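Narrative summary of target 7.
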Amino acid sequence: MLVLCDSGNEGQSGEAWGSDGVGQQFGRSIFDLVQEQTRRLQQMTDELQSAKEALEDRKTQEKAVLLLMEHRKIGNDEAHRVLRKLAMDQGKKLPDVARALVSMADVLK
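Modeled conformation, tokenized:
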């Protein structure tokens, strides 16, 4: 058993933190290791969430490009240019314009 809190025995430094004789320094090392692992897991979770959002944005952009291709009877490259120009003209990010275009297309169906 490892206890990572103050036992209330101030002034008795060097005592074991657990019943199995784990020293204070070793207990601190384990605590630091757990904290570092927690930070790494949080960073990985954040990166995974960012990747999911980027993938979703990309899917939406591709859907918007397909809609432009069908509606304007243009090719893939031209549809990408139109979508980028719409974003620039409106001063918005490409994923935001793509979402708006897809939403509007859903309303018009």
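Confidence is low (pLDDT under 50) at residues 5-17.
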